[in-house]
Amino acid sequence: MTKVLRAALLVGLAAIVAAAPAHAQAQDDTGDTGVSDGPRVAVQPYIEVSQVLSAELSPGDDVLTFTQVAAGVDVSAAGRNSGGSLSLRYERNIGYGASDGIDSDTFSGIARGYLSIIPRALTLDAGALASRTRIDGSGGITSNPLVQDDAESQIYSGYVGPTLATRVGAVDVTGSARVGYTRLEANDAIVTPSGAIADVFDDSVTYNAQLRAATRPGEPLPVGIGVGGGYFQEDISNLDQRVRDTYVRADVTVPITSNLSVVGGVGYEDVEVSSRDAVRDINGDPVIGSDGRLVTDTSAPRQLAFDIDGFIWDVGVLWRPSSRTSLAATVGRRYDSTTYYGNFTFVPDSRSQLSISVYDAVSGFGGSLTNSLAALPTEFSAIRNSLTGDFGGCVGGESGTGCAGLFGSVRSAAFRSRGGQVAYQRQIGRLNAAIAAGYDNRRFIAAPGTILATADGVTDESYFVRSSLNRPIGSNANLAVNGYVNWFGRGDGVDGNVTGYGASAAYSRSLTGKLSARAAVAVDYLDSDLSADDFAFATALLGLRYDF
Question: What would the DSSP string read from start to end of 93-141?
Answer without folding.
Answer: EEE-GGGGGG-EEEEEEEEEEEEEEETTTEEEEEEEEEEEEEB-TTSEE
